[in-house]
Amino acid sequence: MRGETDFFSLLNQPGGEHLQRALVRSVLGEGSLHSTESLLEWVAGERESTNVSVEITKFSKLSQWHFDSCGHLAHESGGFFRIEGVNVEMNRGPVARWRQPIINQPEIGILGILIADINGTLHALMQAKIEPGNTNVVQVSPTLQATRSNYLQKHKGKAPHYLQHFRGDKNAVIVDQLQSEQGARFLKKRNRNVILFTREPPPEGGQFRWLTLAQIREISNLDNMVNMDSRTVISGLTLDGSSEVVEALSASSQSVSSLYNAYMFMPDKSPSLWSLNQIFSWLTHLKTEAECEVSPCSLDSLGEWEFTDERITHNTGRYFDVVPVKVTIGNREVTSWDQPMIRPHQEGVCALFYREIDGVVHFLMQAKMECGNLDLLELAPTIQCLTGSYKAGAVPFVPELESALQSGEGVHVDVMQSEEGGRFYKEQNRNIIYNCGDRVPLELPSSFIWMSAAQVRNFGRFSHYLNVQTRCLLALL
Q1: Phi, psi of 22 (to 5 degrees)
Q2: pLDDT value, residue 242
Q3: What is the C-alpha separation between 37 and 34, in angstroms, rounded?
Q4: N or C, which end of the chain is more exposed by having fewer CB within 10 Å?
Q5: Are 84 and 299 in contact (CB under 8 A)?
């Protein structure tokens, strides 16, 4: 999956003016193939027309899953994923040691979006995908969303739609990255996040529609409409690969938010509180000092976790359960199966603070260590609490956020977003982007740092720097 060329090179080649205009029109929402209203009706129609049944059952009734000799819950094929127990010890954070179940899914999946020029406007081919854990059953998903086990058809079902477009080298590369998933729930999990441009757009139909970039941005700000996989892929798309496109958008009479402009178009060499060298040195120092030991153990030896035939749950009633489910979905590659899923006990909050420093937009990032991270530390949002613990007052800046939410002052985005519906059962978190102004000082605890919008954007070009919660928040811009 090499791609014949870089998409942004096409924009700057002779004749690339047409693609430049098509990209500008897509960002501004001009020339869309479908109205946004009709797209929302399409999603609602998919939800109403498909038979979906998700039943909480018992581990002893799972037909394709078993507890192996190590006490892990595994699929009979040896593929997909395992639920394992782990002992964790780390030298950072409020808790030094604990035990928990975790998802071990070592294979690398593909999350891919196909882009094409449709009638002079770039469109993305998106899918109204039903997943068993989705809060509202159907969400707008990438063109291709498949684990390696899925696209190799270990489930003995059909191959995913449009797979061939992501396994050749005919298309131009816009984004191609390896990125992590939730470091507290997955053990070193990665996916290939890909956006490709094709000169030969395949027909849409059924579960698939062509959307402009503006439409994706618009519906992302609706509760539980665009799934996590779409958001993490879209977050890698920045438009500063073509100065002509930036100039055209800046000169456009149509307004986009100043925060959007700052993130998408701020020049790389814009002034910043800290230089890139200083940020890399800060992050390297924290990684050097970080210690985290994760050792496997059987699920029935987790101590404070209660193991029954119906669920694995923490004895405090906090965090999450592992539950067995039976699934029937009418339009999937396989229409019925069973599996374990993670079911949360609370809704969480992910909040990204920003402010202007000497006239330049900066985001307040934290270096967060999670036991499943491949490289220990990744850049997380200002506040990342997936279990509701932010209300306990243990997280810096919480009083500032709570007062802002009560008044609405400075809140740029406030939307409920679901976690990935293939592994998580109806898990949703409140996603907030908040202009804190000078209410948060420049001097911060050692694990926090102010980064300019351009610096955050540049870190997003590379693997394993911005965690999935950060990427999903940036996608809302």
Answers
A1: -65, -35
A2: 63
A3: 8
A4: N
A5: yes
Q: Provide φ and ψ at 45, rounded to 5°.
A: -65, -40
Place of tokens 């191959």: 159
- How far is residue 305's CA from residue 311's CA, in Å, rounded to a whole number? 10
Residues 325, 132 contacting (CB under 8 angstroms): yes
Terminal Cα-to-Cα distance of the chain (whole angstroms): 28
| CATH numbers and ranges of domains, the chain | 7-51+106-248 (3.90.79.40), 53-105+292-344 (no CATH), 276-291+346-475 (3.90.79.40)
Cα–Cα distances in angstroms (integers) from residue 68 to residues 78, 375, 423, in the given order: 11, 28, 20
pLDDT in tens, 305-342: 999 999 999 999 889 999 999 999 876 667 889 999 99
Strand partners for 144 = 112
Which candidate, 242, 303, 240, 282, places its Cα nearest to that of 458?
Answer: 240
Is it the case that residue 100 has pLDDT exceeding 90?
yes
Strands 336-344 and 320-329, bridge-based pairing: antiparallel
How many residues does the structure list for the chain?
Answer: 477
Mean pLDDT confidence for 259-283? 89
CA–CA dist 352, 453 (Å, integer) = 12
Pairing of strands 82-90, 144-146: unpaired
Return the pLDDT at 1: 46
Output Rg (C-alpha) for the chain, integer angstroms.
22
pLDDT tens profile 114-138: 999 999 999 999 999 999 999 889 9
Tokens of 362: 């900066």
